[in-house]
Fold each of these.
Amino acid sequence: MFARLGLATNVPVLALVGGAAGVTEGIESVVENLLGHVVVPLLERLGAAVVYGGTDSGVMRAMGTTYAAAGAGFPLIGVAPAGKVCLTAAAGASVPLEPNHTHFFTVPGREWGDESPWLFAVAAAIADRAATLTLVLNGGDVTVIDVEHSLSRRIPVLVVAGTGRTADRIAADSPDSRVRAIAASPITHVVDAGNHASVRERLSTLLHGAVGRTGA
């Protein structure tokens, strides 16, 4: 399937998860700055692929706009539940798709979060023997589900504190038991959004690393 779509495999993959409608204007600016100055240039240099939610909102929109502004050429692959999006605007999709993605997969499901296992299955299949990393920017309840799927596959998680909501809850001493379990994982890493050098170094290290993963 990937060959028919012109998608190379055995390349580093970044699974981007985070906030959609709940991203405030101030946080969106922080996210766009980080993506534009650190994440997108690094991914382009590494020849990596990105797998993300693919809808035109929040972190996904920021990724698409910074990708387009940079003239990047790496694959930008959306994965979303078929019951929530549609491939044509005329069909009356409940949520529009981010227009800069290069590929898109609709997967079984009618609710947000139904796509989570599929997103990481796609990421792991494209990476094959290369490294896979989950990057967390902002996020709501579905982001917690996403990160739990990432950890269940032994895919490391890089949480960017200072981007709000779920990312900041993981970085802090949250009373939520699920969030605390994510923070306690030995493959969960936290960096600060204001320290671009640190974010760049950790991203580069984790995307170059050999990552063991479980089966589907």
Amino acid sequence: METAALIVVLVILLALFFDFTNGFHDTANAMATPIATGALKPKTAVLLAAVLNLVGAFLSTEVSKTISGGIIREDAIIDSGAELFLALIFAGLIGAITWNMLTWLLGLPSSSSHALFGGLIGATLVGAGLGAIDFGMVLSKIVLPALIAPLTAGIIAFIATKIAYTITRRYDNKPDGRDGFRWGQIFTSSLVALAHGTNDAQKTMGVITLALITIGWQSADHHEPEFWVIVACALTIALGTYLGGWRIIRTLGKGLTDVKPAQGFSAESSTAATILASSALGFALSTTQVASGSVIGSGLGRRGSTVRWRTAGRIAIGWLLTLPAAGTVGALAALLVVWLGPWGVAIDAVLAVVIILGLYFRSRRNAVTYANAMSDVAESGHAVELPDTPPPTRRQQRIEQARAEAKARQKAKAEAKADAKAKSKAKKNQTTTTKEKSE
């Protein structure tokens, strides 16, 4: 029992660290676009996101129930001993954190949610077999939402962008205008941050709750997280968000498409609506996938915009690798537990610290902070372009063309008049000359 209690403490600490990585890994989902458009300053944006993540974590617990009483059949493992089950959760968290840290180092906006699910599933398969995984729950609550939600968010963003540009036709001679949408982005990006707290913070709550139920510190009849668990997870994800995942913000700042303020407003509205709806239904969505789908949809919705499908393809490949990669690391960590028992847990803990510190110190060789993330974005040529002399809109082009045609007609008329006058003068001179000759 003492060993199990020690493992529970390790699980809680590791789960909170995963929550921390989730915070800085997914900050970009809410704040990359408003930072790039100039709606919010970088430090202001991450502070606002942190506060709203904190608030959002208290608004819903449906997703945490999916984790604590959903994808893993704890009854199928608990017979083997609470110590083994807790060790498998610990191994799964190592898989999730390893993938999160690696993709953060690479600046890849991957899914923290799928990293967590992959790590837990991989560890459980090794330690307890196929029977311990509720694949029906995995399909209905994780796989299908992962396929449907980005598509749904993209369609909503596409329609919202079309509507935004239709009802705000420019009449003020400012082709890159619609600056009012930048103020709207403050609201919509805040809503995305709030939605992120209602969804992603819950996943860590679910893991900790699962560990507490396993050791008997919480009743198996109630999968709602304890209040102290909610507070701890909310504070941790908020802290991670405040520190800001500048590497990933830089990646999304370069963008899947050149985002204008109206597009950003539409994309963020779509992202927030999709995540909030999924949180209410208990779907453990990837906010990264939803946000990316919304950005692509908004890019398709603005006439003249270009979606960088090669970039989208690279991100999609990262999504496809997340579950198996995190699952593989979780499975390897679980093997040590199965082979070596408590010593395997100790070795896993040491390896986790080595991996975390190694990736962190590697990142220091090329540090990305708020000070240089945005400058890199600006130099990339892929960020939001707001030139001093922006190109004319189609309406302005038509107006300029009409003016040019009117000017050409006036010039032709003046030339015709001058020509007629010249001909009249020449004829008069000719008449005078003829008259003089006849005299």
Amino acid sequence: MIIQSQHVDLATPTGTMRTYVHRPATEGRYPAVLFYSEIFQQTGPIERAARLLAGHGYAVLVPEVFHELNPIGTILAYDNPGRDKGNADKAAKSVEGYDSDNRAMIDWLASQPWYAGQLGAMGFCIGGHLAFRAALQPEVRGTACFYATDLHSQVIPNQPGQHSMERAGEIGGELLMIWGKQDPHIPATGRAEVYAKLAALGLDFTWHEFNGQHAFMRDEGERYDAQLQRLGYELVFDLFGRTLR
């Protein structure tokens, strides 16, 4: 399926948020996916992942997650300075800011003639957490979270009662939770804590732990695992095929 790409600059309560839109070029109406990047924003691997989803019949929106803290169009490098800046941005933005970002994208989607009305979310690393956060929105029917950081911690600032796990009971759609057992950012104790909470809430979720490192889906760098990436996408397309079609 041939796709087209563009960007839109959306107004949010915390400033203009550039959002990259990848969708099928063929006329029609398509489900949409809010796709959240790592701390580096829309890098090459993130853009390729978004375009892959779009090529399977989805309109994919990739927001600049730290738009309040960087010039429009910022892409951080996969190096130590980029990592340091991204982690600083993560620690500077309150989790509630992502809620208003989500509303801006959802409201914009509602005005698009090519949007079919079915909405999902997906993300890698902090983006996995932000996809989980997006699942709080009632429109989101299916969410794929890859090695979601900081669900088990307090690294991302939040007001009392606003931590993503404290609000998890509001999630109404299906969750796909995928982890790497060799991921030092989310240890076994942290994963167990998240699992226990989701199970106690009775949420609709599936849980997969692979023998992979953090960022095994990223097709650059020494941690990339092509076999696990293929399995991950198979699970994603199964989820979205059932919940968004």
Amino acid sequence: MPMSALTDRRNASTAKDAAPDRVDTPEPIALDIAAIHKLLPHRYPFALVDRILEYVPQQYALGLKNVSFNEPHFPGHIPGYPIMPGVLIVEAMAQVGGVVLTQLPGMEGSFFAFAGIEKARFRRPVVPGDQLIMRVELLSFKRRFGKMQGRATVDGQLAAEAEMTFSLFEIE
């Protein structure tokens, strides 16, 4: 049941091709910017995810942000040595997490807002030209609250990490 907004990266193998001892786990799905915009309300200059490289429902998403010198925060954030503000790195991770949360059963079309950030650590600067890869895993979801673990890397090096709590937010 492929959706037009999703790019399905699953193998074309059938169930009889699968090994008998293999546990069936969902194959990752990729989402382009159009699909992300259908799931999240963020737009320029605050849309901070360019692509979802992998999305496994109810588990995790792996997002990509191409960091460009043309972004509006760089001229004023450390002139002569532009670095991406840590709060925007955490926000980018939160947007990747939003893809997971908005696709939970019964949550389609919902919006989740930050309710808390814990254990945030910044390990290396993120600069124009970098590709920020963010893996955000769902730790728990109870009632209207979700807890997620995010890790952002550049060239395989940890740039930032945080535990994030989200609350279902009613938009009228």
